[in-house]
Write a structure and sequence with these properties.
This protein is of the alpha/beta class and 391 residues long. 30% of the residues lie in helices and 19% in strands. The protein is globular and about 60 Å long.
């Protein structure tokens, strides 16, 4: 059944929250002012929802209990939010293994969350976006917040993502200093038509080039966000071609497992994949989704998500703790890696420098130049000069 709510909608998500660096502990705070959101222009009007009455829905691409990849990381963020705010488990409803290529399955999962009384629903995968858009129109009193997308309706449907390319650049430094063959592999879920993946590859490759201009990055595409076997096979093909460091933008630890089995090194994604492949993983590019989930749910409780006014999309960064890098493996990284990464990270967090500033010209691998601002990552459909595609 459709649950009618009286919600407030704020132009921004400006609540301080507890979360940092992959932890769900509640000792530190972060403000959305650092994330690129607009500062609140005034007090919100309208009633919120009592904390004990809020119900949160989540749609996962895979089972978070299996593996340490994408869905696992989102689940860690959800559990961090529950702890930060003090919600009970019966205030959370989750749907798992919902394929984002099956529109009927997505609609069914979202409908069930609506019928179970969820006030805010987080849909975590790109392929859920269009169905969320339609459902938000059908249920205007329920908030649909979509991860990794690029659509919103200005009222009860927004998207959330972050400057993950910042951490990817830093991880590229680790890879560029470590490689001995000057051939670095990268397992990509999608090809150049997907700006999220492509901009991340470019940031990684730019990090590589900043410390090792002789190294090349070879990309192999799986054409799937979640394909445990295919991701591992792609990594093995790259290793067979001479790559001795394997990066990834895909959902499982398969590439890191392949790296360990073949005696090379890797850079994980989503969570700290040194748990899966301790003898191979130099570091991992990570999300702390609790940063966003906490403030979004708190805004609904506080009545600072005001219906009828513009909803800001969220684009977090290293400064607010949404994006981070796992601890470096001191036994595996090359000399000087930690010092170089610390130097560049300080510039990023302070705002002194960023990978994609919208001004600096970047040379692609076809001889063309581009500029890219990080918030426009979705428009990136070209590879930088030291990237090659591998069939």
């Amino acid at each position: 059944m459709k649950k009618i709510l009286s919600l407030a909608l704020a132009a921004v998500m400006a609540v301080s929250l507890a979360a940092c660096g992959g932890s769900t502990a509640s000792g530190s705070t972060a403000s959305t002012a650092a994330s690129g959101s607009t500062a609140a222009s005034g007090e919100a009007t309208g009633a919120g929802i009592a904390k004990e009455d809020i119900k949160v829905g989540v749609v996962h691409l895979s089972d978070p209990a299996e593996g340490t990849g994408y869905s696992y990381t989102h689940e860690q963020g959800i559990q961090g939010m529950m702890k930060n705010i003090g919600l009970s488990e019966d205030q959370l409803v989750e749907k798992i293994n919902v394929s984002d290529t099956d529109a009927a399955a997505v609609e069914n999962a979202l409908t069930e969350l609506v019928e179970e009384g969820c006030n805010i629903i987080f849909a975590t995968s790109w392929g859920y976006m269009d169905t969320c858009e339609a459902m938000a129109e059908e249920y205007p009193d329920i908030i649909f917040s979509h991860g990794t997308g690029n659509k919103s309706n200005g009222t009860n449907f927004n998207n959330y993502f972050g400057r993950i390319y910042q951490a990817r650049y830093l991880s590229g430094i680790a890879a560029g200093l470590k490689t001995e063959s000057n051939k670095i592999g990268y397992v990509a879920a999608m090809g150049k038509d997907n700006g999220e993946v492509t901009s991340g590859i470019n940031a990684f490759a730019m990090g590589v080039a900043s410390v090792n201009p002789d190294a090349q990055v070879y990309v192999k595409v799986t054409n799937s966000w979640f394909d445990p076997e295919g991701e591992k096979q792609a990594a093995e093909a790259l290793i067979a071609s001479g790559c001795d460091v394997i990066g990834q933008h895909c959902d499982t630890a398969g590439p890191q497992l392949a790296a360990e089995e073949h005696g090379v090194w890797g850079v994980g994604y989503n969570s700290d994949m040194s748990k899966d492949a301790p003898a191979a993983t130099l570091t991992s590019v990570m999300w702390d989704w609790s940063v966003y989930y906490t403030q979004a749910v708190q805004n609904v409780i506080d009545g600072t998500w005001v219906a009828g006014e513009k909803v800001d999309n969220y684009f977090g960064d290293m400064a607010d703790g949404l994006v981070t890098l796992a601890p470096l493996s001191e036994d595996l990284i090359a000399d000087g890696t930690a010092e170089k990464i610390d130097e560049v990270k300080a510039q990023i967090v302070s705002g002194e420098w960023d990978v994609f500033d919208g001004k600096t010209e970047i040379l692609d691998n076809e001889g063309n130049t581009h500029t890219l601002e990080g918030a426009d990552y979705g428009t990136c459909n070209w590879y930088v000069s030291n990237v090659q595609e591998q069939a």
